[in-house]
Amino acid sequence: MTERTAQDISINSIELSVDGVRVRVAPGATVAAAVLTVDARTRTSVSGEPRAPLCGMGICFECQVGIDGVPYQRSCQILCSPGMRVTTCGEPSLP
Amino acid sequence: MKKDFDILVVGAGPAGIAAAIAAAENGLRVGVVDDSPSPGGQIWRRGTQPPTAARRWNDRFEAAAVVRMMGWRVIDCLRLTPEGGILRAECNTPGVQPADLHFRHLILATGARERFLPFPGWTLPNVMGAGGLDAMVRGGLPIEGKRVVIAGTGPLLLAVAAQLTAHGASVVAICEQASLAQMAPLALALLRQPGKLLQGAKYRWATRKTPFFTRCWPAAALAEPNPGPGSENEPQPRLQAVTLHREGKQWTVACDYLACGFHLVPNTELASLLGSRIQDGFVVTDQQMRTSIPAVWCAGEPTGIGGVDASLLEGRIAGLSAAGKTEAARALSKRRPGMQAFARALERACRLDPRLRELADDQTIVCRCEDVRMAALRGRSGWRDAKLHTRCGMGPCQGRVCGGAAEFLFGWSAGHAHPPLYPARVSSLMEEAEEEAMAASSSHPAIEPE
Ligand SMILES: Cc1cc2nc3c(=O)[nH]c(=O)nc-3n(C[C@H](O)[C@H](O)[C@H](O)COP(=O)(O)OP(=O)(O)OC[C@H]3O[C@@H](n4cnc5c(N)ncnc54)[C@H](O)[C@@H]3O)c2cc1C
Ligand code: FES
Fold first, then answer.
1. Average pLDDT of B263-282?
2. Beta bridge partners of B106
3. Is pTM, for the whole model, over 0.90?
């Protein structure tokens, strides 16, 4: 992870994990943005392509990830909260 | 969970907010339900920054006696009669029970989505909608110093370019598929709306360092060469550059993001499910924004893509009319024709160049949920035939992405919407079946099969 300044940390006051990597985001950030911040993909398509968010408004379902063990959540419509555990494509908690 | 409202509004964008305020200020019990985590719709999306635009509307909405259900999506209609009905909504937070929203009057303010067109490479990570990338950045994606190509059609491109530039992005090109001649009448229509014209000029000034190409579109999005199979941490392919096409010439531009949207497609699924009349893709209403179904109004982009002012006006009319303030609604509706003229001019300006139909090659994926490629769709007789034989449009987005493309590519229209409108949890569907069995009556809306 990149170094962050103290000021960053005070603004980015929410800490969560994406595939085990710790991320800090500002209040109001979406899970999709947090996932893209660590440069992860969100899901793997039926023919095995990596995919990432497309629409940003809840209609395309490309941003689906697992959140706290619940699979298939549209990460663009869900805000980050402290301690959230996000798992992207290929992670074992997704059935 | 059961909730009871005089007026239920679906959608908390400008149209839904204006409708809810108008109805609540007339003393009615109003509920607003929206899939997004916070109100504002597409244009006033909140994200990590405090709302700056439209503070007045925001404050009025916060102050209004309205039950706000943010992060809830309407998935079905359980009952609909001229006296009212019940919508079923699911919460985006896992574990929360579904809600049955009872209403006397219903206002649909479901907005619009971007139209996406398939071209080689458009499924690569970091290729997004124009509004899509804007939403990601408002939602906290760091964009400072990133190189962005913005492409597609419509005034949204310039708005997004200005917004991303303000966030420190380096917008390297704006590519508008329409010609200058095609867009000129829009500029004329804008002369009658100086506010919009000024806004456009401000956007262009903010992006003055970025070349703006007309008749230009992405021919392909290119991936970083994949180093091949190897370690577990094998880097995934990701966007590296975009090949642009303009008047027979092609060139390649390096970029980190491609933001590409071809104007907007109205969200008419719920209106269609209720059986409301839809013509040329838009929900038909009278001057009071009443649909063809008693007890159901519709406002904002499902009735025509006219921008934020049209959505606000229609929302107020619908709210007043549903609250029984027919005279006030009628007075306001006198301002609609000018707005509708603008919407028509906008539609003409954004008409898609037929050559865009040739962007996708046989191997290009059209339906991203089911990975259906162009070759499989050629020769299908229509949307239903394609669905049955290729699973196109059968995935979780239910054709919201590929439907808009297929409409342009093949002239297919999507037909009637079916419940559930979004993939629903099994528990919710089972409960619904019980409810339906109990309510089994002629009052259920007649939904014609495709
Ligand atoms: C990034 C961006 C910038 C824009 N900038 C401008 C601009 O500068 N000027 C301008 O005039 N226009 C702009 N627009 C166009 C803009 O979409 C409209 O002006 C305005 O937002 C339309 O308002 P609306 O209320 O009709 O729809 P929307 O704002 O789209 O709101 C509809 C709401 O309904 C909700 N919804 C839909 N279906 C359901 C369901 N089944 N259950 C629950 N909720 C549902 C959606 O989540 C959404 O929040 C912009 C659009 C985008 C995407
Ligand atoms: S990015 Fe399209 S649904 Fe989330």
1. 97
2. B8, B296
3. yes
